């Protein structure tokens, strides 16, 4: 069964019907790719009820491990089909599709390993006067029902980061994928189901966030909400999620700082990828480069040459480095910000627009109040800004509302660790850009970039509760 042969709504081990439907479009050609069904509030009720029932009997750790490893193998076997659907629904290149599918399979394998490593710890209650005969320890138990809401820009790896650890921890999951990119979530659901995941442990609900998403996160039986998306929606989830715990990976306009002693060739090569891959639609994309004034002009020349060499167009063409943005509206918004900067006298390299395809763009010395500096562009646009010192760069980076990742380029170890201590961010990446991400590391932000971290080990910990066991031991009877 291919993604196009499903309804898209998966509850209780089967595909469900709905009176409402929607079309998935190819983001480059605008041609229909699939016709799917929209989940309603009644589907949310049915999915959560199925998840609650499944959560009453968590799967044994060895079975979770086996299912996740088998699902990873199925993703590998189905690569051609999954990657073709991915390119169509996202507009990203085949190279992006192949890379993200490999990541998703690896995340399942990492989660499988964590499934059999879940453990509590001894609590030294005997140190408390009057408790000398007691022994205490904790067990890690599943939280229950996990609501997972995923974004359009990483519909394989981000879904895997939410679903894999939740299953590894012994929970049941209700997944709401992004409405414009549901085919990848269908593929992951099929892989897990075909790998032997029993009915009720995973449901899939394509639907609008304002209706389906709100009904899901506000459901009283949901105990944990994991969300990746905008800061505005993250605030709404916090407001509607009641007492459920939340993990929120939200917006950013990530900075990479270039010190006077940085390797500018390295900076140029890495920014050429990290600032523009997936048309800049990555939370940690390089949006701002704060370069020491002594290297600003040279770096500007190198980046101008690099950006001018990048091509945007049909993502399936071997000549294209990037494809379209997720929609013409998203591209038009970014283009308006670029034109605003150009009208203010800022030097702009690139920026041509054709439908949803925006040519890679470098903006040199934008005004401080430009939305390209203060907001999240989520487009193939990088701004180059001069600073007088790394101290100033750190102050600028810390002054903004976001704090996800910061890249820091220097050959001075003392300067690097000074930046690590002072930067207000979830991660500081030395001699690489803000976009570096290994799937086993803790990944998350601070301030308006959210709270909590992804990474199978860390997510499994968050998605389990410590249950305390205390034993009041007595003297044994008999001889």
Q: How would you characterize this protein structure?
A:
By secondary structure, the protein is α/β, with parallel strands linked by helices. The chain has two domains: 3-250 and 449-467, 3-Layer(aba) Sandwich (Aldehyde Dehydrogenase, Chain A, domain 1); 255-430, Aldehyde Dehydrogenase, Chain A, domain 2 (3-Layer(aba) Sandwich), CATH 3.40.309. It has 15 helices and 24 strands. It has helices spanning 41-55, 61-77, 79-90, 94-115, 157-168, 183-194, 209-217, 231-240, 264-274, 293-309, 328-343, 371-374, 390-399, 413-422, 456-462; strands at 9-11, 14-16, 21-25, 32-37, 122-123, 134-142, 145-149, 172-176, 202-204, 224-228, 245-249, 255-258, 288-292, 347-349, 353-354, 357-358, 361-364, 381-387, 402-403, 405-409, 427-430, 446-447, 450-451, 464-472. A seven-stranded mixed sheet has the order 14-17-18-13-12-20-21, with helices on both faces. The protein is globular, with a radius of gyration of 24 Å.
What is the count of structural domains?
2
Main beta-sheet strand count, sense and barrel state: 7 strands, mixed
- CATH architecture of the largest domain, please? 3-Layer(aba) Sandwich
Shape: globular
Gyration radius over CA: 24 Å
CATH fold naming of the largest domain:
Aldehyde Dehydrogenase, Chain A, domain 1
Helix- and strand-based class?
A: alpha/beta
**First CA to last CA: what distance?**
67 Å
| CATH homologous superfamily descriptor of the largest domain | Aldehyde Dehydrogenase, Chain A, domain 1
Poorly predicted regions are: none
Report helical residue fraction.
25-40%
Query: What value does the average pLDDT take?
Result: 97
How are the strands of the biggest sheet laid out side by side? 14-17-18-13-12-20-21
- Taken as a percent bin, the fraction of beta residues is 15-25%
How many individual helices?
15
Specify the CATH class of the largest domain.
Alpha Beta
Number of strand segments: 24
């Amino acid at each position: 069964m291919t993604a196009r042969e499903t309804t898209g709504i998966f509850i209780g081990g089967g595909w469900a019907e709905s009176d409402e439907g929607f079309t998935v479009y190819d983001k480059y050609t605008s041609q229909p790719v699939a016709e799917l069904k929209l989940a309603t509030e009644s589907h949310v009720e049915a999915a959560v009820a199925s998840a609650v029932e499944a959560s009453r009997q968590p799967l044994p750790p060895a079975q979770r491990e086996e299912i996740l490893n088998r699902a990873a193998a199925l993703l590998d076997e189905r690569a051609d089909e999954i990657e073709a659907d991915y390119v169509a629904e996202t507009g990203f290149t085949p190279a992006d599709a192949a890379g993200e599918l490999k990541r998703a399979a690896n995340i399942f394998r990492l989660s499988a390993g964590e499934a059999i490593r879940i453990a509590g710890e001894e609590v030294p209650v005997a140190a408390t006067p009057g408790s000398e005969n007691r022994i205490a320890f904790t067990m890690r138990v599943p939280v229950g029902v996990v609501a997972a809401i995923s974004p359009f820009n990483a519909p394989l790896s981000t879904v895997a980061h939410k679903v894999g650890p939740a299953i590894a921890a012994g929970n049941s999951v209700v997944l709401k994928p992004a409405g414009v990119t549901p085919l990848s979530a269908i593929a992951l659901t099929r892989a897990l189901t075909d790998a032997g995941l029993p009915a009720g442990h995973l449901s899939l609900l394509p639907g609008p966030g304002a209706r389906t998403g709100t009904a899901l996160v506000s459901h009283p039986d949901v105990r944990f909400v994991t969300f990746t998306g905008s800061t505005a929606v993250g605030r709404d989830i916090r407001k509607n999620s009641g007492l459920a715990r939340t993990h929120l990976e939200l917006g950013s306009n990530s900075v990479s700082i270039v010190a006077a002693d940085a390797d500018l060739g390295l900076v140029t090569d890495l920014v050429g990828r990290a600032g523009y891959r997936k048309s800049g639609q990555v939370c940690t994309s390089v949006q701002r480069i704060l370069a020491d004034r002594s290297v600003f002009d040279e770096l500007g020349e190198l980046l101008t040459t690099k950006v001018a060499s990048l091509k945007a167009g049909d993502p399936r063409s071997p000549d294209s480095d990037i494809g379209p943005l997720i929609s013409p509206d998203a591209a038009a918004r970014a283009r308006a910000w670029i034109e605003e900067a150009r009208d203010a006298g800022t030097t702009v390299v690139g920026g041509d627009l054709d439908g949803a395809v925006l040519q890679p763009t470098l903006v040199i010395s934008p005004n401080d109040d430009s939305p390209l500096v203060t907001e999240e562009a989520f487009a193939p646009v990088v701004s180059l800004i001069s600073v007088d010192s790394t101290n100033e760069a750190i102050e600028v980076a810390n002054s903004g509302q976001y704090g996800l990742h910061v890249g820091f380029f220097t050959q001075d170890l003392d300067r690097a660790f000074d930046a690590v201590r002072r930067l207000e961010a979830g991660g500081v990446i030395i001699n690489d850009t803000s976009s570096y991400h290994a799937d086993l590391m803790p990944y998350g932000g601070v301030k308006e970039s959210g709270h909590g971290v992804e990474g199978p080990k860390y997510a499994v910990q968050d998605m389990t509760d410590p249950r305390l066991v205390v034993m009041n031991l007595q003297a044994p009877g008999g001889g």
